[in-house]
Structures
1.
Amino acid sequence: MPSPNEAVAALLREYSELLGLTGGDQFRVRSYEKAARAVGGYPEDLGALPESALTRVPGVGSSVAAKIAEYRRTGTIKAVDDLRAKVPPGALVLSKVPGVGPKRALQIVGELGITSVGELDEAVRGGRLRGMPGFGPKSEERILRGIAIAASDAALREALGSLAPDATADEICAVLAAHLATPGAGESGPGHGLIRAEDLRGDLHTHTDLTDGTVSLEGMIAAAGARGYEYYAVTDHAPNLVMQRMTDEKVLVQRDQLRALADSTGMVLLHGSELNIAPDGSVDWDEDFLGGFDITVASVHSSFEQDQATMTKRFTVAAQNPRVNIIGHPLTRRIGRRPPVQVDLDALYAACARTGTALEINASPHRMDLPPEHIAAARDAGVKFAIDTDAHSLADLTNVRYGVAAARFGGLTPDDVINCWPLERLLEFLSKS
Ligand SMILES: [Zn+2]
Ligand SMILES: [Zn+2]
């Protein structure tokens, strides 16, 4: 029996997905997705809050609060039921297969009456998609690859989902070792000198409610301080991710606020940003403005479908940028939702090692990116890593153990991970000199 928080989060997420599938307004799609994250990450039991207090949950406005109240009264949310009834069965499931997407899913369901991934697989192999407008050999190939990724993602997700909510890094690592096809050094048992959760001195990729996080700057910093970190970076989204509505003014005001908080915390606060790697490898802002940040994470948030040569060039250009410190969630996969981008991994590792750019081990259990099975090879190529939560809520900060598990699986020691280093050594690395 899921908790009320989980049940409501699942319904809000489904609502957001259904809105996206039916061509709903992108801002509404995003705001329900954000509300789902906020509710899922809220530490108190939503079932026990007085109704008037629901809007005090960060990220929950009046219309979401009304839906939560309705769920508490009736056990359901009518708007979700109504929208679900309008979408043909199977369309939502198919739309999540990498390479299919909403438009094609509706087309496939409408024209072929397919309602499951298994049926889709058979249909592609039987050539039944051929001749449908907009489908060629390339899309057949992409869909088959998507189905394979969806299957392995489902297995990984199930394995991670089977863990207790308070599983330790070691327990998570054991699941990875049992599950992943290409075991790293972690399979050789409790290795000597492997990284432990307590070796981490800080988190270098986190968000606040200035962009799509659900908690204020003060709230995130207080929670990080309570974890005993020595340093902590705030890296809200940069302007080119238009949906997040970041501006120069907003980020500079945040910098002042962060500097003002420095005295009240025992941590060193780093002001950063999560930059967007454009299709040509460039990032937000000019070099001067970027020089005002203590740290930057640069991530791919668009044009995921580039061919391997173009994508590899894109990452290489970003790593060569003297203002880029960490490549965030490098393969941009979302387990069960988005396939990894196609990039020449050896070239990516070489570029990072050569330029002093860290690769992120994104600790979100929805991402696990860099995927654990690639970590050992990256380390052997001379890459340094940052284990980050990419936290959007207070609960997300505890995901760090998934990143530590992945790093242990890959055989990493604290020396391989820049946020295990003393501040001085970290700052030297961030200067890229
Ligand atoms: Zn990102
Ligand atoms: Zn992020």
2.
Amino acid sequence: MTPTVTVRREQAGDAAAIREVLVAAFPSDAEARLVELLRDNGRLVVSLVAVLGTAFVGHVAFSPVHVFGAPRATGLGLAPIAVLPEFQRGGIGARLMDAGLDECARVDAGFVVVLGEPSYYRRFGFERADRRGLGNEYGATDAFMVLELVPNSLAGMRGIVRYGDEFAAVAEN
Ligand SMILES: CC(C)(COP(=O)(O)OP(=O)(O)OC[C@H]1O[C@@H](n2cnc3c(N)ncnc32)[C@H](O)[C@@H]1OP(=O)(O)O)[C@@H](O)C(=O)NCCC(=O)NCCS
């Protein structure tokens, strides 16, 4: 029987296989190091893997963001998401997105932000974050997007979204 792709939470012992997926999907190991730092710091709030038989083919991570100017905001940042190149465009990314956003809702995240290709994330309901009062530290405009998970959690919010220190630490190395 042909194995089908399963999306499940990261388990103990998955770290090395996740690293392999990330290194294969991105030009450098920066995203792999980011996920490892977040895991070490206990900030990998949502981490899901896509598994085909015994092979790891995809991964998505979400970690807490802070909104400077809105200290009670409970948002998560989506980064990174990756599917092995030879398995891309088969819907695995969408499966990881859908399951990942469900998990974010389960852990009571009010909203999720992402810095990425608008045409990809729009299909999951993301919209320009600056239209909802949220700026970013990277000078991004349409590429910085937000999805409200808890209705009205963004109502009246104004502030600059800060990702965890792990992001800057990886960017500097
Ligand atoms: C982004 C990624 C996870 C999508 O995974 P996937 O399994 O290919 O996604 P799906 O099969 O669900 O969706 C594929 C669709 O997304 C589009 N797509 C994929 N990556 C895209 C990107 N960077 N920009 C715009 N569209 C993209 C494809 O064109 C395709 O569109 P179609 O359905 O109209 O043909 C995968 O392409 C990947 O790992 N890329 C390298 C790592 C990366 O850049 N991650 C995002 C930044 S963290």
